[in-house]
Backbone:
């Protein structure tokens, strides 16, 4: 697999405020950036649906945390 990854395409979606906040809180609780959390979630759904695509390696960059422990 090529070690260079180009993330050039974007998906833009509108969501409700409560979904956006849930994504932010869940990503923070996992210590991830929102982008990495959403990428992983979309990838997982595509796998469940049997879609064919080249999987990304684990791109989990750690987000800055305000506290040591967070809960959902």
Residues:
């Amino acid at each position: 697999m090529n070690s260079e990854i180009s993330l050039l395409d974007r998906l833009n979606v509108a969501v409700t405020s409560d979904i956006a906040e849930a994504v932010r809180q869940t990503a923070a609780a996992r210590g991830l950036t929102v982008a990495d959390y959403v990428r992983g979630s979309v990838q997982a759904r595509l796998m469940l649906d049997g879609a064919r695509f080249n999987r990304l390696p684990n791109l989990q960059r750690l987000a800055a945390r305000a506290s040591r422990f967070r809960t959902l």
Observations:
- The helical segments are 17-30, 34-48.
- The mean pLDDT is 85.
- Residues 13 and 50 are 22 Å apart (CA to CA).
